[in-house]
Amino acid sequence: MTARIHRDAHRAFTLIELLVVIAIIALLVGILLPALSQATLSAKNVVSQANLRQLNAGAANYASDNQGRIFSYTWRAGETYTLPSGQVRRPTTDQDAAADQNQEILMRVTGRVTGLTKIRNYRDRLPHRRYSHLVLLDFLTNVQPEPIAASPLDRNQILWQENPLEYGPGSGVPYADGIPEGYDDDPNWTQAAVRQRWPFASSYQMVPAAWNTDGVAGQPTFAPVAETPHLFIPTGTDANDPQVPLGKRKFSHVAHPSGKVMMFEEFDRFNGKNGLYFAYPEAKCNLAFFDGSVRNEQTGDANPGWNPAFPSQNWLQRYVPIDTFPSPKSGLGETTEYCQRYRWTRRGLRGIDFGGKDIGRAQHGLAQNPPCTR
To answer: Which residues lie closer than 8 Å to 64 by C-beta, 6 or more apart?
Structure first.
């Protein structure tokens, strides 16, 4: 009897041994979980780069079918168009024409032409920035919202894609009502026509020069707005030249295809825990170039860029988020300004972002490498 008890005692764990085993397991979990999390993040970043490659391929196919044009809205001022709803549109500017075409595409692919969910017209916003990819419908997945338009790291955009009809209050769609202090407070963001488009937006932005003019020598163009990075303003227009021509760019207009960004992920969600705004010097956003390549470049290595309305000045701007967008790295209300780099390339498609000097600075007596944080 005594011998049996002795043998059983040898087989059993002591409390100390059990605690040691638990501690080892906890240590292993603590070591492995961050590694697994980083691996998941890396995999999503690879998918995001693959999305840009597919968009590049769609751009190339579009150009092949459209006389070398860079994909953009093609409806023009002065023409007459009919929407799927039967409504007739006669735009007087290229901006209005693009907005009408945007409505036509969304009506056609969603079937939402009547009733409460009808896709509404909205001419007060340029659709090019977040919705240029819609014209690539025939060259991508033929599904709307377009899956590859959303980075797998952009959780909000994916959520909106999965719930395209839930854009009412509380849905998480950006409202920019200025609450709390530090968010963009443009009241137009709350309009239904603006909100209902968010599911069809993209995590990847087209650079303005891809659909805008280059803005050289006072040429009519759209330029950045000092108060917010989310809006553009026409400049260089007058009574003789009252509008900015849009959507007329070709790949042949690009002077440095391997050094000029065409599309960029607006936030670096891989290296920044909460997402780094592309203009932060340390950000390394995924970038699609006009030569078809996709690269991950540090923003601080890009040329400074410009504001075509003020070519003789260095242009810096602060990041003001829309509600649900990543907060500034120093918190809401950040006042630090940054060069806008490849988003506003000096001289547009004639300029260069990486791998060469910032073309056109010397003629204005500007330093080649000015301070890009202020």
So the answer is: none
